[in-house]
Each structure stands twice: as structure tokens, then as C-alpha cells.
Design goal:
With 147 residues, the protein is an alpha+beta fold. The protein is 17% helix and 37% strand.
Length: 147
């Protein structure tokens, strides 16, 4: 089994886990997270621009072409400082893959993945919310083929 095929199998398993978690979240009245595919698109926090709910727990997995990177740019960003967090992972959501934890009201710089998968995990606490975020992603920087 090739490395890419093995990676896709693991990614499919991860997507199933995230979608199941998303169904549980949806049962609580939220609609957020999921698998996002394609060369470009938009991701918004639930309720954007009118404010996100308390106890949100949303995971988006962005997947682009096999040899492409992903550039994530923020159009709007407003989260309760230190308590509502958007974590961005380079690949799967594992501790070693964490690129940045974002919170507060300052518009973050663009983020570029090292590969074709980028994961966003949005969590909020029990009180105080803000406008939320709107992020745009697009394929960028074609990766070189292995020798």
C-alpha cells in the first residue's frame, strides 16, 4: 500500500470520527464543522456574523489536491479572548501538528499548510461570545514531486 493510500485511509477514518462528532453537535442545535473540499472556499463560525453559541465544538478538515498546500486568510476575527479558541492544525488534529491557537480581536496573519490538509478546531466556553470569524482558503504553492 502506498504512503498516499495509507494516508487517505487514515484521513477517511478521521473524517468519519469528525462527522460523528458533528452529528452530536448538530443534535444540540448547532450546525458547524465537517469535511471541506475543493480549490477554494469560505469557513465561518456558527452564527456568523451575529455571534456564535456557547459550548460550540466544531472541526473543519480542509482537503485540497494531493500536491497542493492550503492558504488560509481571515476576513473577520472576533473571539472572546483566552476562552473561545480557534486551533489550526497542519494536517490532522494532533498536538505535534498544532500551527497556532487563535483568540481575541486581532485579525490573524495568513496561514499556509505544509501539505494538502489543514484542520480548524473551534471551541467556546459557557458565557460571553463575539461576532466570530470568517476565513477564506485556497490552494496554493504547488509542492514538488518526489525524485
Amino acid at each position: 500500500m502506498t504512503a498516499w493510500r495509507k494516508f487517505k485511509s487514515l484521513l477517511l477514518l478521521l473524517v468519519l470520527v469528525v462527522l460523528c462528532a458533528g452529528l452530536l453537535t448538530a443534535a444540540k442545535g448547532q450546525n458547524c464543522g465537517g469535511l471541506v473540499q475543493g480549490p477554494n472556499g469560505t469557513i465561518e463560525s456558527p452564527g456568523f456574523p451575529h455571534g456564535y453559541p456557547n459550548y460550540a465544538n466544531c472541526t473543519w478538515i480542509i482537503i485540497t489536491g494531493e500536491r497542493n498546500r492550503i492558504q488560509l486568510s481571515f476576513h473577520t476575527f472576533a473571539l472572546e479572548e483566552d476562552f473561545d479558541i480557534l486551533s489550526v492544525y497542519d494536517g490532522q488534529p494532533q498536538q505535534g501538528n498544532l500551527k497556532v491557537r487563535l483568540s481575541g480581536f486581532q485579525l490573524p496573519s495568513s496561514i499556509v499548510s505544509s501539505g494538502s490538509v489543514l484542520t480548524l478546531w473551534f471551541t467556546t466556553d459557557f458565557a460571553v461570545s463575539a461576532q466570530g470569524f470568517k476565513a477564506l482558503y485556497e490552494e496554493s504553492l504547488r509542492l514538488p514531486y518526489p525524485a
